[in-house]
Amino acid sequence: MGDFALPEALLVALRDVRSVGVITGAGISAESGIPTYRGKGGIYDDPDEGDRTVEALSAPTLQSDPDRTWRALFQIAGAAVNARPNAGHTAIVEIERKAERFVLLTQNVDGLHRLAGSRNIIDIHGDAFELICMSCGKQNQFNDPRTGATTGQGLDIHRCAAAGRAPRCPCGGVYRPEVVLFGEMLPEDKLRRLYAELLDNPPDLVISVGTSAMFPYIVQPMLVARMAGKLTIEINPEPTEISDFVAFHLKAKAGDALPAIAAALPNRV
Ligand code: APR
């Protein structure tokens, strides 16, 4: 912790960095106690749902069997409500503070980046704490004790998770989470920001951390940055689809490598 040694060549390359993009996946929240999807201990290894979890987290299942979709969702949202940002999340806030231009693209729906204090966030898969009724459109949220902002209006996630069924709206309808389920389109406005800030104008440094890099919209910013001669770093204890083409693959935990990168970056503001 804190004494992670970055390669000398990377320390030299970091000196010229003015703008930064960070791309995160479930792995950055693993050290906060939230299960990842894939890899050992991931929810797709879950004994009863296993790889059926993908089916459980899909739009057709939300319509046909919402209680099943919510049981799978509670594995993430239920763990998130007890989770706190870790050193990796905090290091990303420090990187944003130091950079002249910064953007964070996250696939996570656990709200930990917002809680840590990150500002320019593209949460491409949404936020599991935000709800909307599929019948009347009423918006609601799970009370988030982590922020202390328990409006009293919100729903108690533990009670809903214990019931093992989809939260219901006063109108009798079923709430859906404001997240992108399998089979659903990504939100247009967030895609436009991704194109503008990561593809049309790649930052000097793009870091991929804690993601198995399964989706093209996650791989593409790293590819584009690499092709544009920008500095690319992957932080992941395991190899992934992008490990062979990034400039530096740090086989490390997010909580170890990110603070070292944050410390090595020059302060541009
Ligand atoms: N630090 C860094 N990386 C880690 C750590 C850690 N402490 N622990 C695990 N990892 C890595 C794993 O090696 C794995 O490559 O994090 C990655 C997690 O991969 P996934 O579980 O596939 O999560 P993610 O990449 O975010 O999945 C993308 O798929 O199921 C959908 O919508 C879901 O947003 C999710 C998307």
Set down the secondary structure blueprint.
Blueprint: H1 8-14, E1 19-24, H2 27-30, H3 52-56, H4 59-64, H5 66-80, H6 87-98, E2 101-106, H7 112-116, E3 121-123, E4 126-133, E5 139-141, H8 157-163, E6 175-179, H9 188-199, E7 205-209, H10 216-227, E8 231-235, E9 248-250, H11 254-264
Parallel strand pairs: 1-2, 1-7, 2-3, 7-8, 8-9
Antiparallel strand pairs: 4-5, 4-6
Helix pairs in contact: 6-11
The chain binds adenosine-5-diphosphoribose.
Residues 25-27, 30-31, 36-39, 42, 107, 125, 209-212, 214, 235-238, 240, 253-254 line the site of adenosine-5-diphosphoribose.
Q: Can you give me a brief rundown of this structure?
A:
By secondary structure, the chain is of the alpha/beta class.
Classified in CATH, the superfamily of the largest domain is TPP-binding domain
By secondary-structure content and strand pairing, the structural class works out as: alpha/beta
Instruction: Kindly report the CATH topology of the largest domain.
Output: Rossmann fold
Assign a percent range to the helix content.
25-40%
CA-CA gap between termini: 27 Å
Work out the number of β strands: 9
- What characteristic shape results from the CA principal axes? elongated
Strand content: 15-25%
Largest sheet, strands/sense/barrel: 6 strands, parallel
- Output mean pLDDT: 93
What molecules are bound to this protein?
adenosine-5-diphosphoribose
Radius of gyration: 19 Å
N-to-C series of helices and strands: HEHHHHHEHEEEHEHEHEEH
Low-confidence parts lasting 5 or more residues at pLDDT below 50?
Answer: none
CATH architecture of the largest domain: 3-Layer(aba) Sandwich
Tally of DSSP helical segments: 11
Query: Strand order, biggest sheet?
Result: 3-2-1-7-8-9
CATH class of the largest domain: Alpha Beta
Number of domains: 2
